[in-house]
Structures are given as C-alpha cells and as structure tokens.
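Human: If only I could read backbone structure tokens as easily as an amino acid sequence. Underneath my words sits a plain record pairing an amino acid chain with its backbone structure tokens. Take your time, and here it is.
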Amino acid sequence: MLKFVKDHMATIDGIEIYPIISLSIFFVFFIGLFWWVFSAKKDYINKVSRFPLDNQENE
C-alpha cells in the first residue's frame, strides 16, 4: 500500500514543496510557543492557573 502511495506522489509535479511548508509552519509555531511561555509574566501564569479552582468555589 505504501509503495502505491509513494509512486503516485512521485508523479505529481511540485509536490516536494508541501513537506517544506509543513515543517516551516511546525517550526514557527513551536518557536512562537516557546517564546510566549518564557516571556509570560508570573502574575498572569498564577492568575490563569487559579481559574479551575476559582470556578469551583463560585458554585
């Protein structure tokens, strides 16, 4: 089955750009995510981490 898919994909012109685009999107997303995590303020992290507990106290 994999051989059929591989042979079929090899006949499509310009298909080699899609893995490059996918890797680029993946890389940019996770670099942005790491940047956001390391630059987030501690007060914001503490506030957001208390949301589930605060919701239970209100009910």
Observations:
- Residues 17-39 form the longest helix (23 residues).
- The chain has one domain: 2-58.
- The chain has a mean pLDDT of 85.
